[in-house]
Amino acid sequence: MAKVQPSLTEIDPVWHRICEEAETAIADEPLMGGLIHAGVLHHATFERALAYRLSMKLASPEMSEQILREIADAAYAEAPALPTAARADLVAIYDRDPACHRFMQPLLYFKGFQAVQSYRLGHWLWKNDRRDLAYFVQMRVSEIFGVDIHPAARIGKGIMIDHAHSIVVGETAVVGDNVSMLHSVTLGGTGKEDDDRHPKIGNGVLIGAGAKVLGNITVGHCSRIAAGSVVLEDVPPMKTVAGVPARIVGEAGCAQPSLAMHQLLGE
Q1: Of 17, 78, 74, 28, whose CA–CA distance to 51 is shortest?
Q2: Helices 81-96, 65-78: inter-axial angle, 10-degree rounding
Q3: Roughly how many angstroms between the first and final C-alpha of the chain, as a whole number?
Q4: CA dist list (Å): 114 to 31, 160, 179, 250
Q5: Average pLDDT rounded to a whole number, residues 165-173
Q6: What pLDDT is recorded for position 10?
Q7: Each residue of 32-78: pLDDT tens digit?
């Protein structure tokens, strides 16, 4: 007897769960059937669904959905690390955001997830010397999502940007794995210098709402930056900083602040 090969959904638990949730959502709200079928159930793989969703969001009279979808399909075929990072980002949002109750939500509704995946597409274009297309993606992400990430910036996986309003990440910024940041965060420069001028954020860092991290400085792994802080100097690993300008006010409070999401200074 021939061995039965597992389906794609069976070997991709993230995609399998999204499809199950999509079926349930349509049963609960039939008026969403067209959108959910087009965004999820019409596609055989997570990669195809993600390419479709991003192309629909980024399309404009200047660049069609079809062209953008072909670009995304090519990127995911050539660089499988991109959809792998997208899965890690999606799971991170589900684990850390109390407003996220289904895996389907970030893919269809959350602009933080969609903006980061669009940035990843632009970064792939940038690395392949397709700079004008990369700038176009950056422009559309800024216009549609209110998130401005330079395509040359380097961002790890397991990223959660909660609410994702007024986020700015500069050209030479580096963000590690499993980082969480809230709305209105800036990873910016301090002047017109044309060299390495943006922050380097370690793994497991939590950056509170409205925080500004400026200049070519290092924020050590598993540290916390309190909401509204202005960080102008290096932050040691596993510390909490707060204030304008930010100063060390204590330990990080846990092994990985970005996972725990505790933002009160007493915690």
Answers
A1: 74
A2: 100
A3: 60
A4: 23, 11, 16, 34
A5: 96
A6: 58
A7: 999 999 999 999 999 999 999 999 999 999 999 999 999 999 999 99
Q: What is the pLDDT of residue 90?
A: 98
Identify the CATH assignment for 13-146 out of 1.10.3130.10, 1.10.510.10, 3.30.920.30, 1.20.1250.20.
1.10.3130.10
Peptide bond into 245 cis (omega under 30): yes
- Whether the pLDDT of residue 9 is over 60: the answer is no
Asked if 57 and 35 count as a contact pair (C-beta separation under 8 A), the reply is no
Q: Which two tokens stand for residue 121?
A: 């597409």
Buried b (16+ CB within 10 A) or exposed e, 81-102: ebbebbbbbbbbbbebbeebeb
Mean pLDDT throughout 238-255? 93
**CATH topology classification for 153-266:** UDP N-Acetylglucosamine Acyltransferase; domain 1 (2.160.10)
Q: Which residue ranges make up each domain of the chain?
A: 13-146, 153-266
How many other C-beta atoms can be found within 10 angstroms of the C-beta atom of residue 36? Answer: 20
3-state secondary structure of 128: coil
Our separate counts of H helices and E strands in the chain read 10, 15
8 Å CB contact between 27 and 116: no
Question: How far apart are alpha carbons 106 and 260 in whole angstroms?
Answer: 19
Give the DSSP letter of residue 52. H
Neighbours of 265 (CB within 10 A): 13
